[in-house]
Amino acid sequence: MKTRKVGVIGLGHVGAHVAYSLAVQGIADELVLVDMKEQKLASEVQDLRDAAAYLPHRVTVNPGDFADLGDCDVIVNSVGKIELLETHDRLTEMDFTIAAVRGYVDKIKASGFDGVLINITNPCDIVTRELAMGLGLPKGRVFGTGTGLDTSRLLSALNRQTGIDHKSITAYMLGEHGALQFAPWSCVSFRGMPLDEWAKTDEKFRFDRDALQKESIGGGWVTYAGKQCTEYGICTTAARMVHIVLHDEKAIMPASMELDGEYGETGLFAGVPCLIGKNGVEQIIELPLTDEEKAKFRDCCEGIRKNMEHLKDI
């Protein structure tokens, strides 16, 4: 029986929780953890090993280096420096994270890695592109969590507003994983019932859409304000993506993926609904956006391109 091996690079608040989620949910049979801080790495490995006896699934946890990632089925990249977010601008991380990725992407490639890499590190869309270019894997095998977490925040807000369970709601946040993202309300439905139709007969579905969108965009800062990090939402988002890949689910989920003509955009990664399977992102789903929503998406992409200009200075 082939075991499922997952590597996690970067064991800060997010990376450590990703590893724990993969272990406690039984998603991975073997975890390889990589971090530049030797004591941090040793501590996280020990803590997970201490939990192994009481987990409902068998899991092996080992420390490693980039050379040990070659036979991983999936790698999750979560290197970051959380204190840089004190400015409330994910781009402040860029000088650190882009330099870090450039420092080890060739080491991942040299390991012979030929699986799927999922990036969390911010700015997510730009770092994901950097990793994809550096690794040179087939298109779709490198993608980011993108607006996956933001979509979860939107679903949560819609659940509280309407009382409908998260899993019965279809809704997305699109564009940049950052301040420029937006919710295409024309595509929101409840198991086939469009939001606009339900709003005609039930006041719970007639709400301030701008307020809910703003809540979804700003949710991360609410979390950060009291604990100086985000953990549970993003680690669960990443773990779900790993599960989809390992089980070849062909599930649709928002992710940061390279656009090559979809939505009229090329040359950048952005958050869009994607069909995900064993080969990573296997298809980008183009939603039937209204003209106004198409304009908002173009604005998001222009914002990402503007931020990409800073790459020349790093």
Walk me through this protein's architecture.
It is a single chain. The protein has 314 residues and is α/β, with parallel strands linked by helices. The protein is built from nine helices and twelve strands. The protein has a six-stranded parallel β-sheet, sandwiched between helices. Helix 1 crosses helix 8 and helix 5 crosses helix 7. The chain is globular. The model has no long low-confidence stretch (mean pLDDT 95).
Which terms would index this structure?
six-stranded parallel sheet, 9 helices, 314 residues, 12 strands, three-stranded antiparallel sheet, alpha/beta, single chain
Short overview:
This protein is of the alpha/beta class and 314 residues long. The chain has nine helices and twelve strands.
Give the CA-CA distance, first to last residue.
45 Å
Structural class of the secondary elements? Answer: alpha/beta
How big is the Rg?
Answer: 19 Å
Shape: globular
Number of strand segments: 12
Helix amount, in percent?
40-55%
Strand order of the largest sheet: 3-2-1-4-5-6
Would you list the SSEs in sequence order as H and E?
EHEHEEHEHEHEEEHHHEEEH
What integer is the average pLDDT? 95
Low-confidence stretches: none
Largest sheet: 6 strands, parallel
The helix count comes to 9
Strand content: 15-25%
